[in-house]
Design a protein that fits this description.
Elements lengths: L39 H12 L5 H4 L5 H6 L4 E4 L25 H12 L3 E6 L10 H14 L4 E5 L9 H7 L4 E3 L9 H4 L5 H14 L4 E8 L5 H13 L4 E6 L16 H13 L4 E4 L9 H20 L1
Parallel strand pairs: 1-2, 2-3, 3-4, 4-5, 5-6, 6-7
Helix pairs in contact: 4-5, 5-6, 6-8
Bound molecules: iron/sulfur cluster (SF4).
Length: about 325
Amino acid sequence: MTVLIDKSAPKPRHPEKAHRPDTEVKRKPSWIRVKAPTSKGYAETRKIVHDKGLVTVCEEAACPNIGECWEKSHATFMILGDTCTRACAFCNVKTGMPQPLDAEEPAKIATAVKEMGLAHVVITSVDRDDLSDGGAQHFVDVIQAIRAESPKTTIEILTPDFLRKDGAAETVIAAKPDVFNHNLETVPRLYLKIRPGARYYHSLRLLEKVKEQDPNQFTKSGLMVGLGETKEEVMQVMDDMRSAGIDFLTIGQYLQPTRKHAAIDRFVTPEEFKAYETIARAKGFLLVSSTPLTRSSYHADEDFAKLSAARQKRNARNRT
Ligand code: SF4
């Protein structure tokens, strides 16, 4: 039998998910409504990003907050290409074999940050299991390029887990970003289903290492809820995070990107998000953002100011 392959057909964005059965996409409740991206500021941010050929997680992950964030020039740059070597069940970023690294990327990002006049910038990346250092040196190059162009801009990084990449995390920590973020994403029981290529305790340990190597760096981590986790499991994760010294916790509703992605178990109500915030604050996080539309980088600039103020207040209290 001859099998004809249509080479002109577009490649699926997530080839590993193409044969999965469709799951039902639940209708969004009234409290998940976002602004359409139509403002002048949005168009200006889009132009800078596209003219420079940069990749953002805002677009790649189809983030619901893009209208609001880009209106304020707040885009989260995604480095190391647009193709991820993992295949998490919740994520909309393209998967497959990535392209070689773009050596010009650090300079392009540094120019964009300067042009946009950003006081705070968030840099994230795809996972690059194919690179011997997982892309650690490229993170460092981007941080240094931004510092050289915009020394007053504070830098927040949202990294992959650098699993099986010895020394990679240490390399990035040594570049002294202001905030080191790595998302635990979900509770340990759901890792195999939602984040099969990752290991819960490895991710937790990565954040603990940041504090051991440089206690001045703020650490931050996030959870998606609505995937089938229980309240008790979320509270246990909060305790684990506090044991690892994590300063800032973000919690947001999981939204299903396509019918091939993990199904939403339920929509967590705004009241439940508020309750998570109250519990997390009582557990000692310096800052907590817990709302249905909270994402790792949502309001990151304002939150950095709040985080710094909260640390100063705590230090002053500890001195008295
Ligand atoms: S929340 Fe983050 S990912 Fe979403 S649009 Fe805003 S900056 Fe981009």
